[in-house]
Amino acid sequence: KIECPGVHCDQFLDLFTCKLMIPSNLFSKWCDVLCEDYVLGFERSYCPNRNCMALVVNEGEINYGTLKKARCPNCKQWFCFQCKVAWHAGYRCEESGNLRDWNDIAFGKLVERMHGARRPACGSCVERKEGCRVMYCRCKTSFCYECGGNLKSASGCLCKEKGDVYCHHYCAIISGLILIFTVLGVLGGVIYGIYCVIKRVLF
């Protein structure tokens, strides 16, 4: 802001009022300074498209640090506002560095359309139709569909610590029963094996 040089005047000079009185190059510099001052007040990023690289500003519609999927107003391409790469549908920000090429991104978009999720540890794609968040992967591990983290136990996940309802109330009971029967089955097999050995030795 530029104050009026007039005596006893506390008003600021208006850009467009002064346009006809100043050189065009000075007017352009003034516009650049005003734009820069405006932009510095908002979260900003540059379009990752090498043929574009336009400045994209989060003008406060979404809270600072929470905007993720953004569309460049210049080239119209979607990108991740947080990790500054092309939109990695189906991948989390911490995994975006593992994207090898556009085929990975295309696969991620397909996963997103299917409402699926990728297992962070092995990269397998799992689709969830309905039910609880507890998912069982072909790599023999269970994970939370929402946060992608390994389950800390048979009845919980990282989301539970935040107070989220991660599951149907009976899933924890079922998981516990499955665990108990699995242990009993293993113990039963061991006991039966010992019995067979003893029987063969004695008889």
Automatic annotation (TrEMBL):
Its EC number is 2.3.2.31. Pathway: Protein modification; protein ubiquitination. Residues 1-172 form the RING-type domain. The lineage of its organism: Eukaryota, Viridiplantae, Streptophyta, Embryophyta, Tracheophyta. GO terms for molecular function: ubiquitin conjugating enzyme binding; ubiquitin protein ligase activity; zinc ion binding. GO terms for biological process: protein ubiquitination; ubiquitin-dependent protein catabolic process. One of its GO terms (cellular component) is cytoplasm. It comes from the Eukaryota. Its cofactor is Zn(2+). The keyword DNA repair does not apply. Keywords: Membrane, Metal-binding, Repeat, Transferase, Transmembrane, Transmembrane helix, Ubl conjugation pathway, Zinc, Zinc-finger. Pfam families: IBR. The chain crosses the membrane at residues 172-198. InterPro entries: E3_UB_ligase_RBR (IPR031127), IBR_dom (IPR002867), TRIAD_supradom (IPR044066). The keyword Glycoprotein does not apply. It comes from Citrus sinensis. This is RBR-type E3 ubiquitin transferase. It catalyses: [E2 ubiquitin-conjugating enzyme]-S-ubiquitinyl-L-cysteine + [acceptor protein]-L-lysine = [E2 ubiquitin-conjugating enzyme]-L-cysteine + [acceptor protein]-N(6)-ubiquitinyl-L-lysine.
